[in-house]
Each structure stands twice: as structure tokens, then as C-alpha cells.
Amino acid sequence: MANEPPHHTYREITDNPSDNLGCAWFASGCLFIIAVPFVLLTILAFVFDWQIIRWVFLSLSALFILLALVERLSFCKLPNKLNEIVNRPSPRLSEAQRAKDFLGFDFGDDFKLKTTGSHDYAEILLDFKENGFDLLKNFCEDSMALYNRIDGEDEITITEVKKHLVIDEGCDFIGKPPITKSGYTKIESYYAPQLSKDGNLWITSMLGLEVDYECRTLKMSWTGW
């Protein structure tokens, strides 16, 4: 995707149920690997006739191997478990639904979706095919620019809609103008009134959505402080 921010590791979310079994295979594989040194120690303990400790090693080996087998078989052999996974809602469409709800528009399901995040940041990035992007672009182009502030006792909410993307905020101090490009931006920011002084608002969290017309992508992020 052309507008992936640097220093982020993205993971693609798909509709294929078999992709959701990857964690089970990985976990069972790790358990088998952990069991290997205990198996070797068990063999050594019996060879050198280590009394009590050989039974400890044998028990640990058997435990890790049993857990690995249970993990592998429970996801890959039991029909009920596989049917349960198949019948779950699409992970890709479930993630994208957040963007649809925030945007207030159903842009269909013809896209690839990646996700990334950290302890205080989460992001989804949707990459549209050329034909599937037109509906979303038309909606964004027809939307009106907006600035709306709602002051509450416990929270101040500011919603902004811009008819462009901001690449660089610029700097009034040195006379550097902002740099923008063709696109659509919606930001919803939340502030704590009790922490805001002298007109400076103290932000606590923010939802941001950007549609890049050139790259045919939609990016939505959640940030908290």
C-alpha cells in the first residue's frame, strides 16, 4: 500500500478461515520445541540413573507433548471446531465495519485490509481495487466540510471534516504553508475540560480517517493518551 506509515509492521486480515488457524499451528509448534530439551534430559536421566529428577523430566516432556497435541488436534481435526470458525463473521469485514460506521457510508467489501498498532495506537488500512473505489470517492467528494464542537461537563468533542489530506501542517512561525493533497479527512477528537487551561485543550483520544484518492486507500486510526 502506497501510504503505509514507516516503522509499522502490518498484518493482512483475510476472510479465509484457515488463516485463523495459524496461531494454533504456531502455538503447538512452540510447545513441541519446548518439549525437545526435556525429552533429551529424560533420556540422559535414565542413562545415568538419575533417580527422582528423571521422573520430573519425563513428566514435563509428556505434559508439553500432550498440550501440543491437544492444541493441534482441537483446531485441525475436530469438525465442530472448524465449523465454528467457518461460521464466524468475516474478520476482514468486521474490522472494516468500524470505518463504515465512523464514515457513515457503506463502501462495500472489495478491498484488502491490513492492521497495525501498539499499546496506545491502532490502525486499519484498506486498499481498494480501481473499480471498487469509485463509490467511496464519490461519497467523499459530495460530503461537506465540517467543524463541530460539543462542550460537555466531562468531555469536549470536536469533529472535523476536510476536503483534502494534510501531508505537512506547515509552520506559521517561519511562514511555511501547509502541504495538502487530493483526498478526504475526518477527525473526531476528545478532550478533558478539567485539564484544559487558557484555551489550550488537553486531548485524551482521537479517531482519524483518511481517504487517499491517488493511492485508492482508506486509513483509520485510534489514538489514546
Features:
single chain; alpha+beta; 2 domains; eight-stranded antiparallel β-sheet; 31% strand
Can you lay out the helices and strands and say which pair or pack?
Blueprint: E1 11-13, H1 22-47, H2 51-76, H3 79-86, H4 91-103, E2 111-118, E3 121-128, H5 134-142, E4 146-151, E5 156-168, E6 179-191, E7 203-212, E8 217-224
Antiparallel strand pairs: 1-2, 2-3, 3-8, 4-5, 5-6, 6-7, 7-8
Whole-number total of structural domains: 2
Query: Radius of gyration, rounded?
Result: 26 Å
* Mean model confidence by pLDDT: 80
Measure the end-to-end span: 27 Å
Tell me the number of helical segments per DSSP (H or I, 4 or more residues long).
Answer: 5
Q: Report the uncertain regions.
A: 77-86
Largest sheet: 8 strands, antiparallel
Question: Explain this structure to me?
Answer:
With 225 residues, the protein is of the alpha+beta class. It folds into 2 domains: 12-86; 91-224, no CATH class. Helices cover 36% and strands 31% of the residues. The protein is built from 5 helices and 8 strands; from the N terminus they run βααααββαβββββ. It has helices at 22-47, 51-76, 79-86, 91-103, 134-142; strands at 11-13, 111-118, 121-128, 146-151, 156-168, 179-191, 203-212, 217-224. An 8-stranded antiparallel beta sheet has the order 1-2-3-8-7-6-5-4, covered by helices on one side. β2 and β3 (121-128) form a beta hairpin. α1 (22-47) packs antiparallel against α2. The longest helix has 26 residues, at 22-47. The two termini are 27 Å apart. Residues 77-86 have low confidence and may be disordered.
